[in-house]
Amino acid sequence: MTPRKAEPSAESGGDPAGEPRVELAGIVKRFGDVVANDAADLRLATGEIHALVGENGAGKSTLMSVLYGLIAPDEGEIRVAGKPVRFRSPVEAVEAGMGMVHQAFRLFPSMTVAENVVYRAETRGTAGLLDRRAAVRAVQDLSERYGLRVDPRARIRNLSVGVLQRVEILKALHRDAQVLILDEPTAVLTPQETRLLFDVLRGLRDSGRTVVIVTHKLGEVLELSDNVTVLRDGRTVARLVTAETTGAEIARHMTGRAVDLDGHYVPGTPAAAVLTVEGLTVGPPTGRPVVDDVSLTVRAGEIVGIAGVAGNGQLELLEAIAGLRPSRSGSVRVGGTGLHGFSAGRRREAGIAYIPEDRAATGSAVAASVADNLAVGFHRRSPLRRGWRLDRSAVRDHARRIIEHFDIKVSTPAVAAGTLSGGNLQKLVVGREMAHDAPVLLVDQPTRGVDIGAIENIHGRLRAYRDAGHAVLLASAELSELMALADRVLVMFGGRVVADLDRADATEENVGLAMAGIPASTGAPGTGS
Amino acid sequence: MTTTPTAPAATPAARARALLRSPILLSILGALLLGSVMLLGAGGNPIEAYAAMVDGAFGSTQWRNTLIVAVPVVGMALAVAVPLRAGVVNLGGEGQIVLGGITAAVVAATVDLPMPLSLVAALSAGALAGGLLGTIPAVLENRLGVPLLVSSLLLSYPVVALASYVVRFPLRDPGTGLPQSRVFEEAYRMPVLFGIGLSAVVLAVVIALVVQVDSRTPFGYEVRLTGHNRRFTEYAGVDVPRMVTRLMFTGGGIAGLIGAMVVTSVPYRYIDGALVVPGYTWTGLLAALLARANPLGAVAAGVFFAALQVGGFGMERETEVPRELSSILQATVIVILAATVAATARRARTRKDTAVSERPSSPEGGAVRTRTGTTSAGEVDS
Fold it and tell me: Containing H/E element for A156?
């Protein structure tokens, strides 16, 4: 009944090459008319780090959900140690040795690390009560063995994202996971935290476990993994040995075409200052500000990048400039106009457009149609407005123009925006905001979670927008993105601009250190201080 | 007018299938079925009872009674639906209808005007009073962050008490021992044309206006988008607080107008409790929720509930079945609807969790998440 597998220790881990530890064969999963997995295969050996890559919507997450027992496949077979199994729930998958670290952590914020780790696998003491001391000891043992430094008694809500991820890994290890699945594990980490994570994962591999990382970052795939499986349109299109392949080859399999991976940064030609921010401070009237005395200037024909780990004030800075968040002090000017006391609507009229971080929660109304989403901001002016009425056919024409110009893949403008893929929804937001032709464009994480094709597209658009003489302020947690686009890089940490680097000084090392709050030795002193 | 995510295709077959799967039809059929079971259990004949109910509501002369009840119910449904379209829950209908009614009564008792002007004055005064009362919670929320849902509800109690005082003392008809005003002068009586009260005509105009603004104007478009995602329209530069104030003025104004029209119709006097006891506000609220704030849907649902009530009396006369069955059916419709909507939302959520969890978590609250999702009342509109 329960497919409890024979525990292969690290020494006996030499499975015969023809017999993988876990195999997914011919997995098919449909959601209504959408085929998420179409004969997807995956073979995982003992003691390897396996990268599962593919563009958004390629079926990676669905395949991992099948492996973890979250969804039942319509067709196909899961084999563990050669024996077919069926997981009716994650509980059964965990019993078979699977472990999963989700992108959105599933932890109880008010409880301690140890309590979270042992949850549902507790050691019970007298009278069936939770043995807290045993829990703490178990966590200490594990964290020492695998170099996952965590205080077992700390409360979850007080921990940083990097530490939370370690807790999730500990949780899986505590259940003796032999196959550890990590979904986009580096999305929220600093470069330094990423390196630490990679060391831990290598250690796990060397102890005979199987590590699966689901990712779309090719650099990580090449650096970390032993083998790669590429999914495209729900199908396994390539199985590669990492040492024998290149990033370009993997990208070609992912997209089905040749992709230019080099960021090809082209310098802009900055002119007069357009956006000037001076001493901007944002936060509650008393207490620590989230944006602390930030000053910056963006010139026409220039992209200024803001680097920083998510949550260091970038979002709040952009929202304050856009008028969505009150500022405590400081000034924002566009051209010669001071924007003090301006609402978000008046700031838009003064020449600010904004591509927000979260395209679904802020940048669109997913239940409304694509046409309605594209009309926003244009709907009170001619030609969309005719007299007192909103001209429905003008709204449709307006939508068609943006859809065509920005290459958004959608059958008709009448479908709900929520049915678009992440990349297409992002193009919708980018297209609408650029269509305003505003002198200042604020951009926050423009390519988060979108596929390679869309990244290329959006990067090209941002460059073209700059070259048309607009000022662009771009916040991104992806260093590669800033390297591909920014003419100047500011680094935010703890709400302050801690580094203001010219293109030449903005090396990965310098930016990475500043992102972690360590002052860079080179580079100009921060403007803010 | 808006496309729903579940029905992208527009072929007649697909539309029919979507309608069959629609939670509204499902809940109505479910309620009728449950009602049948109860009737059978009590030894009644469901077909006979339902037939008597339909006849009682839409029979040769009965439809006029239904119309009389439908006017306040539909009006109060709109009073809720107009703000709800933007996700704003107006629970203050009771205060607004009562204030509108008592204001019209005061005008009728104190101002001497000739015929058309008199009614225009009474109805506008009632609508204005209801509208202003509606804006108070909006301003409180915009300026001070007091939850509108709570303040609109609580404001009703002092207003209802005030109206009660006015009709028991200054306006009281000394000729009777009851808490009611004198019968109004001829000039303050809503005329009846071809068996249809002028109230129904006025309401029809209001419905037409609301539907036009909702579906055809930039403002209506902003309101609908705000109902979908308030963050989004704020981000796009819409002054949402001002919109909330306007919607609450409109909603309260419609409620006040209804109060004024009920008072100036038969029996042409303000009777304490006459606007509260029949539960127009709450039936209207249910209708607006059932229609998910769609104005035409709210009208249809309001007529449906009014027909249930009036039909219930007919059924009680014709068969042995008590008219409480109407209330049971009405409640069951809502309960089944709420359950199906919540279940659909949950299914959509778990599917999103597992299949398309490719969006990284936000660093603030989203990073730490437990599996226990909560369903708020707002999700009815999702």
Answer: none
**Res. B3: pLDDT tops 50:** no
Residue A83 phi/psi, 5-degree rounding, is -100, 130
Residue A376 to residue B236, Cβ atoms within 8 A: yes
Q: Angle at which helices B295-318 and B62-84 pack, to 10 degrees?
A: 150
Better-scored residue on pLDDT, A159 or B365: A159
Could you tell me the CA-to-CA distances from A444 to A43, A268, A376, A464 in Å, in that order? 38, 20, 19, 17
Count other C-beta atoms under 10 Å from residue B238's C-beta: 26
Digit-coded pLDDT (tens) for B155-184: 999 999 999 999 999 999 988 889 999 999
Average pLDDT of chain B to the nearest whole number? 86
Rounded to a whole number of angstroms, the distance from the CA of B259 to the nearest CA of chain A is: 30
Give the DSSP H or E segment for A8.
none
Task: Determine contact, residues A13/A208, Cβ cutoff 8 Å.
Answer: yes
Using alpha carbons only, give the angle B347, B348, B353 rounded to the nearest 5 degrees.
95
Shortest CB distance from A105 goes to which of B220, B351, B369? B369
pLDDT (tens digit per residue) in A308-329: 887 789 999 999 999 999 999 9
Of B372, B228, B365, B347, whose CA–CA distance to A360 is shortest? B228
Distance CA B357, CA A100 (A): 13
- Judging contacts by C-beta atoms under 8 Å, the chain B residues touching residue A166 are none
Query: Alpha-carbon distance B364 to A215, whole Å?
Result: 22
**Nearest residue to A460 (alpha-carbon basis) of A178, A174, A263, A245:** A263
Whether the bond between B191 and the residue before it is cis, its omega within 30 degrees of 0, is: no
Minimal Cα–Cα distance from A215 to chain B, Å?
A: 10
Share of chain A above pLDDT 70, in %: 93
In terms of Cα–Cα distance, which of A481, A511, A479 is closest to A493?
A511
**How far is the C-alpha of A200 from the C-alpha of A193, rounded, in Å?**
11
pTM of the model: 0.76
CA A377-A378-A380 angle, to 5 degrees, is: 95
Alpha-carbon gap, residue B111 to B308, rounded angstroms? 39
Of residues B249, B306, B247, B330, the one with CA closest to residue B81: B247
CA atoms of A492 and B182, how far apart (whole Å): 73
Question: In chain B, what residues touch A349 (CB-CB under 8 Å)?
Answer: 237
State the nearest Cα–Cα gap between A144 and chain B, in angstroms. Answer: 24
Asked if A226 and A48 touch (Cβ cutoff 8 Å), the reply is yes
Domains in chain B, please, with CATH? 25-354+362-376 (1.10.3470)
Across the interface, do A310 and B362 touch by the CB < 8 Å criterion?
yes
